[in-house]
Amino acid sequence: NILNRKVNSQFLWLLRVFFFPSPLSFSLCPGAGGWSPLSSDRYQWLEVDLGGRTRITAVATQGRYGSSDWQTAYLLMFSDAGHNWKQYRQEGSIGAFAGNSNADSVVQHKLQHQVIARYVRLIPLNWNPNGRIGLRLETYGCPYNSDVLSFNGQSSLIYRLTPRPRQMSSESISLKFKTLKNSGILLHAEGQNGHSLTLELEKGKLQFLYLLLLSPDSRYLVTLGSLLDDQHWHHVAVEHHSNHLKLTVDKSTEHFIVSACLCTLSPVQMILGAQQGFSYTSFYGCLENPVYNGLNLVDLAKQKDQRVTGNVTFSCSEPVFVATTFTGPQSFLRLPRIDQSSLGISVGLQFRTWNKAGLLLTFELPNREGRVWLYLSKARAHLQIHKSGRAPLELNAGSALNDGQWHSVDLISGGGRLTITVDGDEGASAHASPSFLITTGGHIFFGGCPAEENSQECLNPFKAFQGCMRLLTVDNRPVDLIKVQQRLIGNYSHLQIDMCGIIDRCSPSHCEHGGSCSQSWSTFHCNCSGTGYSGATCHSSIYEQSCEAYKHKGNISGYYYIDVDSSGPIKPQLLYCNMTEDNTWMVIHHNNTDLTRVQPSPEVNTHVVHFEYASDEEQLAAIISLSEHCEQEIAYHCRKSRLLTSPEGSPLSWWVGGPGVGQMHTHWGGAPPGSQQCACSLQNNCVDSRYHCNCDADSNEWTNDSGLLTHKETLPVRSLVLGDIQRPGSESTYKVGPLRCHGDKNVWNAAFFDKETSYLHFPTLHGELSADISFLFKTTSSSGVFLENLGIKDFIRIELNSSNEVLFSFDVGNGPLEVSVKAGSPLNDNRWHRIQAERNVKEASLRLDELPAVTQEAPADGHIHLQLNSQLFIGGTASRQKGFRGCIRSLQLNGVTLDLEERAKITPGVQAGCPGHCSSYGSLCQNQGRCVERPTSFSCDCSSSAYTGPFCNKEVSASFKSETSVTYAFKEQMVNELNRSSSSSSSFPSSIYSDITLKAENVSLSFRTSQSPALLLYVSSYHREYFAVLLSKPDKLEVRYRLDSSKDAEILRSKVKNLADRQLHVITISRLADVVSILCACLFSIDSEGLDPDLAQIASLGFTGCLSAVFFNSISPLKAALLHPKTSPVTVTGPLIQSICGFTSANLSHATETTHHLSGKRPLVNAIRSDSALIGGVIAVVIFVTVSSLAIMARFLYRRKCTCQRQEVKTVKPEDNPELPFRSRITSQNGPTENQKEYFI
């Protein structure tokens, strides 16, 4: 405890301070007493002189004894000299301490970081509204002793140390300093072999420079700290262990690794301050306790050690510069004009701020004829003068004045000349020669104006100034701010006098992942551009963690940025994702994946190859760990070049693989680790059974050993050593393929909570300054807690608050804060929903599915550390709230996936895994693809689609020539499939001659051609009923159909022209019962034998162009011909070349629709034959059933506009033909004959 010391207070009314000889007993103190000022306002303080510098660890307060007087909140200030106070801030930003709630109880605060000071000042902020400010105070600590040195800008100390015979494994340097100058050298050390270390102040920041002079590339420069020129003590420490360096400035620490040549400094000379002729700026200020490897350098200087030379004093002088802080919009300082007789005016000041705008000073011209404003705008100093009857006068000077450094500005008017100067001779100035006198006989206002609405003396059309000012002068006379503080001159409001309360909110920066930090007086901002991260602090990754995650968002193969640890420290990198197979492969290339011939060197007996991968080491390890399976191809082609086994039995070749530098392996692809074998040995098919590898047979014929390395702990392959390459006749080539991994273990890791009382628990969530939580859930319950972690007072929780609302809540000491998102539809629909929550020092955000994120700002200058100490509960809660019933999947905390399945296996009431993905992801299976459930995932079955690919979205396209044809013959099973797809309740008898009635057809295909006329599509029955789609002159779409062989065909014509334009066009034809729907678009061609004469003439021309995605119900003739020709009933004649000329119809746009009925037609029933038919030139599809109604859809691409006019066609009314329940929306067109009708689409 600190004994009674001298106590000062402002406006003392009753002073009786208690310093207890032992720790507070938290009991009432006998007798009356305590400090209570005459006025209870925010300008009172209690100051204690401790008699010497003291290490202060805690403070405690009570109210005034036996009264209603106590303070409820207060500020603590500390100082070494009784001026230039420094405010103590908790967690770096919180200034206020919680006070008392009554006069008797004791409230103690242990300081998070100790303070060394002589003077303590307590400033009440709030007090009992029914009483006055009342206080009893106690401080805790112990005396502090130190050795100090004073440098005046010319002085220095030089230490010449004895060289050590051997380098040390560790070194350390520590010191404290204080200064008012923002630049100067603190320490420079020169070691053996040209090593050097420099600690230097540059613009108020500490620069650490470590270099090897003999090698310019060996240079390490680190900058830490900010605002270090505040005349307060700052601690610096450098610790050097092996090749690890640690630099500490106050509470900021930086770790980095240096090269082997810089492992130790072993200085032979160390300079403190500066030396004459030295290239660095001299230091002006004080150093305290400079220590090198435990050796106190001040002690050596005091002892006049021969190794020490210099000219310093062993004390620390305290120059007095009284600053004042303008804390907010209500801050202002009003000063009277000192020299009323002066013809002109001179005002000067120094300021520092982070704001780009703010009023510096203003005053009225005499007789209220105008006004002068000196202000900051866009970080430049602007002078603006308004005088009645005159044009405004404006000057500006300086730039980047919001950098937090001290800047001076001087306004001088006299002798018909006006000058504004920024930063003196080194800065900038602007001049003018006004025709009127610029002076004032009234007051000068600094920083802002009083809040009184009726005040006409001060007007401020600009923002108020927030920052610090010092060295104010009026008429070349300094302003005594201490007298201002004592209300002896001028007036002020909301100022903190005799201190500069500026805070650098970007040091240390809360912007993560390389985001750049900028700030204003009250907050900071992070620019995340180009980082790959987003959010208020650049915390959350904008990329997925794996190719699997990209795939299940509907993406296709290609290069993607992969961020394997999401918000973790590993940077995202561009990798290739192969999504063409059921497994989604992440492909990591290296510098040589080609088959490479070995070129022997006469001087070397082995051939060594090193592989450099596209991914960083950390990312490689994370990818391998994340994946379910990894593999890497390795191959050796040889002739008279053995691979593994020599006659002596030792391995001739090997490879190095695995994490870090890797380990040596002597097995080859396809064989288990440690076996010293190749794949042929396991398959018993080596060319010589006496050897375990084909190449070891030493044959004169070319052979090879190849296979896949699949043991993840041995991957990736880092180098390859080939040993048998120098013998006469030896030839060889090798290939090491890219590393390929599939299966994201995180994406499908899930657990099912079948009771509201069941839960999983994990270690405490660590996210003091920032934390992100993401997961998927599905449930049928309307509420439940997903996640909860508690501390003593702090907590964090995510819950389903109702069937359509998710709630994210937490408390870091500022009171509970909640963020909620409401969905437009119920969330308890047993489908997967995604939650992403983030909390950082600036804000909290919550996002549900694809809804916009909802954010809630954190309180300004509030608590920022989330302090938790209990276990993390998943699916339940420690606070006995209602638990969650349902599935949780892919739960990640700060980019780390929690293994729910492993924990669920040993936890009652929780099941590992959670099936049922197709209800959520089935829509990803496109183009009639069918979603198939898997235990952990799903897949798309494309057997009933004309498309292929993981999501049935890759078109199957082919280029046709005039002589090309494809014949598809329907078998009985095909007819059965068609019947099932048409939802017919009847089934086929075993005879292939059975009758069949198709109640629905779906036909679609795409085309690209320059040919016209061309038959695009022809479908016929055994009895010659048909419909046909063709391009007629002039490149128009025409649809003909004959559903009764005894009648002529009906014709539909489109007004769309120019379809043979080499652009991609799509047609879709569908029939359901009796209704025909026509969606106008741009089409393709097909022809056949046995056509009507005019169709036959067009068909004889063949088809030249591209066909893609041909589909009839569940049959894909083109896909069968290209991908499954041996197992499908297809016959191909002429050249059929697979191409990429098609395009997904889902990407097409701009179609219009019309609907009409067929004229008195009904579905036909025909005998089925096992015949096949040829559609000459393109595709033949023989279905033996006449299509009774159809729809056609086409769309233009590449900015071609496709339009259809909606028309109605008069047809037979439903009552005239009871078999046709039609609803017509088409107007009729008069046909040319009774049997042949024309329709214009």
From TrEMBL:
- Compositional bias (Polar residues): 1225-1234
Which InterPro entries does the record cross-reference, listed alphabetically?
ConA-like_dom_sf, EGF, FA58C, Fibrinogen-like_C, Fibrinogen_a/b/g_C_dom, Galactose-bd-like_sf, Laminin_G, Neurexin-related_CASP
Could you tell me which cysteines form disulfide bridges? Answer: 887-914
Where in this chain does the record put each EGF-like domain? Answer: 502-539, 915-953
Q: Which residues form the F5/8 type C domain?
A: 1-142
- Note the PANTHER family from the entry: CONTACTIN-ASSOCIATED PROTEIN-LIKE 4, PIKACHURIN-LIKE PROTEIN
One GO CC annotation:
membrane
Region (Disordered) residue spans: 1215-1241
> Where would you find the membrane-spanning parts of this chain?
1173-1198
User: Taking every annotated instance into account, which residue ranges of this chain make up the domain Fibrinogen C-terminal?
Assistant: 538-590
State whether keyword Electron transport applies: no
Q: Which PROSITE patterns match?
A: EGF_3, FA58C_1, FA58C_3, FIBRINOGEN_C_2, LAM_G_DOMAIN
Per UniProt, subcellular location reads as:
Membrane
Record's CDD domains? EGF_CA, FA58C, LamG
Which keywords are on file for this protein? Disulfide bond, EGF-like domain, Membrane, Repeat, Signal, Transmembrane, Transmembrane helix
User: What are the Laminin G domain coordinates in residue numbering?
Assistant: 148-316, 322-500, 749-914, 975-1141
Q: How does it sit in the membrane?
A: Single-pass type I membrane protein
| Protein name per Swiss-Prot or TrEMBL | Contactin associated protein like 3
The UniProt family comment states: Belongs to the neurexin family.
